[in-house]
Amino acid sequence: MSTKSSVVISNQTGVHKDLESTLKKHLANTYRKPYRPFTGEIFHQLDEIQKTINKPIILDSGCGTGESSQQLAKQNLDTLVIGIDKSEKRLDKLTSHNSVYQKENLILARADVVDIWRMIKESNWNIKKHYLLYPNPWPKKDQLKRRWQGHPIFPEMISLCGQIELRTNWKIYAEEFKFALELVTNKAVLMDTIDVNHFISPFEKKYHESGHTLYRITSESL
Ligand SMILES: C[S@@+](CC[C@H](N)C(=O)[O-])C[C@H]1O[C@@H](n2cnc3c(N)ncnc32)[C@H](O)[C@@H]1O
């Protein structure tokens, strides 16, 4: 991941004009898409481990290679860090083809978070903080529903935990995420830029080295 990355190009100039109506529709209708095969089995393994370890959980959704989850686990020994990514190629660096990998207070799992989030909600996990580090931007206007704030899972995802941190190199993504969080929770959310001297993830490193501004959205105790 040493190649330079170009800035996000979009045919949007600000928050998507349909974001508010999309969110209102999603708030009024619970997302019911059936779970993918095997996710139940993976969740069951995660659930058994978290019950045994019995510590507050830090969730790293879309963790890529899992390097951010590793760092978070080292920095937060009093928690269980769970990194989840659907890409076998990315996670395999650490998991070597296993769907669930565990070492001390770190678990990495290969699964679709859209299913896992709903299962976590049903099982009422004790999540201390939820990281969404550099989600795919899906920057074209007609890709709004692929961004987390435009996805029907958004209301359930933000109800998992009061502390959410999203990082992105696309300003409009950050503005939309802030808009969506504030609309749903009715509370002010902080948006700032980060000046990194220590990288939390491979994409953070790549974007920083490419000279991009890195935006952060943080919500405390929604
Ligand atoms: C741009 S990468 C960022 C990876 C990592 N967080 C980082 O900062 O280096 C986005 C990641 O999100 C993952 N992802 C996207 N949608 C997902 C989903 N529904 N479930 C799980 N992972 C997903 C992708 O596989 C990819 O690894």
Outline of this structure?
Helix content is about 35%, strand content about 20%.
Number of H/I helices: 8
Bound molecules: S-adenosylmethionine
**How would the global form be characterised?**
globular
Give the tally of structural domains. 1
- Major sheet strand order: 3-4-2-1-5-6-8-7
Reconstruct the topology from this structure.
Blueprint: H1 19-28, H2 39-53, E1 57-61, H3 67-75, E2 80-85, H4 88-95, E3 100-103, E4 106-110, H5 113-123, E5 127-133, H6 154-158, E6 164-168, H7 171-185, E7 190-194, H8 202-209, E8 214-219
Parallel strand pairs: 1-2, 1-5, 2-4, 5-6
Antiparallel strand pairs: 3-4, 6-8, 7-8
Helix pairs in contact: 1-7, 2-5
The chain binds S-adenosylmethionine (SAM).
S-adenosylmethionine binds next to β2, α5 and α8.
Question: Can you walk through the features of this model?
Answer:
By secondary structure, this protein is of the alpha/beta class. It has a single domain (38-219), classed as Vaccinia Virus protein VP39 (Rossmann fold, 3-Layer(aba) Sandwich), CATH 3.40.50. The protein is built from eight helices and eight strands. It has an eight-stranded mixed beta sheet with strand order 3-4-2-1-5-6-8-7, with helices on both faces. Helix 1 (19-28) crosses helix 7 and helix 2 (39-53) packs across helix 5. It is globular and about 45 Å long. The mean pLDDT is 94. It binds S-adenosylmethionine (SAM).
Supply database-style keywords.
222 residues, alpha/beta, Rossmann fold, 36% helix, 19% strand, binds S-adenosylmethionine
